[in-house]
Design goal:
The model has no long low-confidence stretch (mean pLDDT 97). 5% of the residues lie in helices and 39% in strands. The longest helix is centred in the first third of the chain and has 6 residues. The strands form seven sheets. The chain has a nine-stranded antiparallel sheet, with no helix packed on it. Strands 18-17-20-23-24 form a five-stranded antiparallel sheet. With 360 residues, the protein is mainly beta. It is globular, with a radius of gyration of 19 Å.
Length: 360
Amino acid sequence: MAEIRKESFGTLKDGRAAELYTLRNAKGTEVKVTTYGARLVAWKTAAPAAVDVLLGYADAATYEADDDSAMGGIVGRHANRIEGGRAVIDGRTYQLELNTGSHKQNHIHGGFHGFHEKLWAAEPETDALKLTYHSVDGEGGYPGNLDVTVRYALSDADELSIRYEAVSDADTSCNLTNHSYFNLDGYASGSILDQKIQIFADKYTWADSESLPDGRILPVEGTPMDLREPVRIGAHIDDDFDELRMGAGYDHNWVIRDEKPASEAYAKAGLKKAAYAESDKTGLTLTCYTTQPGIQFYTGNYLNGQFRGKGGATYPRRSGFALETQFFPNALAHPNFPQPILKKGETWKAETVYVLGTKD
């Protein structure tokens, strides 16, 4: 069970104060979370290694200035993209904010000011840090007042659990995820291309040049999308393959197969093994488990080092990778995909667990 302490994390443009909470387990591993965007700011292993594997900034003001990367944040109401910003719910079409695409013709991550740009309320609990946010009816174009709860918990086994709950007073779309960028060599170490990735998926959703799936679910076999065995991230990232050309590298959704975790407790909780990453340099490993049907593997293709990070670090292109557990992008346009619809009065629940370890 982690100890939790609170400190100031600076102020936002409107003068509101942000807080920073540090969760520390018995091993000395620390996870830092800010109330601005419910963002993960740091995940530092215990001494003597003391490697911080999360890209992040030193204060809330820098997170607020970087309004593109969603660095470490909880994104919603709907993570990822929706074509034309059109959400059809119970036969009624809602026009969502258009904030992405070559001509700003699509919707992503909840609109111009998604959940990663909101100030959340925090409350330490016995076994977790609880963060809550009330999203009003019409925010981003979505129907219904939505109450969201996210709990971060750090175990003594270096398991970082993210548990989501949401309730709405009207039928709405709900698809929340965390948008952290990992670098297992350390946040300031530059390229991730020599680190290895494995995704437990036999299929992926084809996406066009706007990163919008068209409804097809294709086999990974025989393509650079085949990450079923650990492979160096840079091995095929620039192959002459349509999906990689259009995405400027990996930025795609994989359909997680029913890969049962070794832990009986994980299996009982409905958690499936989704992804695994490792670094030869530090010997660190990262395993992702989730209850969600899909995972977006993004290799930071559009990071550009514009903002100074913790310790003065810069985050250039491909200096971090994201493992965003989710419903499939553009699911509302494709009935054959699992649907991210939350019915009035029901409780939407999901969980993702990231586990830091070391290579055998």
